[in-house]
Structure to design on (90 residues):
């Protein structure tokens, strides 16, 4: 089984208060992406899960784009904490 590496950057108290914040949404999507990725390593032909993963990746990308436009410093801090690459600008 693949080791699950879920992130808990935000404390429990902050989770209950800021569930609608962009950072929390990106954090929860990143956890779901990592969980689905580990699932797909074991089940390569699970095409419905692959489709769901692509949808989640697109949603996270849109949220990251929104955050980078609104507040560049929060965006930089978040991608460094989560260990994800910076998106390409068009």
């Amino acid at each position: 089984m693949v080791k699950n590496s879920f992130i808990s950057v935000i404390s429990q108290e902050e989770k209950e208060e800021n569930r609608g914040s962009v950072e929390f949404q990106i954090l929860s999507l990143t956890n779901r992406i990592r969980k689905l990725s580990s699932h797909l390593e074991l089940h390569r032909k699970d095409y419905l899960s692959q489709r769901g993963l692509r949808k989640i990746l697109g949603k996270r990308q849109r949220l990251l784009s929104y955050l980078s436009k609104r507040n560049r410093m929060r965006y930089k801090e978040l991608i460094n904490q989560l260990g994800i690459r910076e998106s390409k600008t068009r």
User: Anything to note?
Assistant: The domain at 21-80 is CATH 1.10.287.10 (Helix Hairpins). The chain has a mean pLDDT of 85. The helical segments are 12-17, 22-42, 47-70, 72-82. Residues 3 and 46 are 20 Å apart (CA to CA).
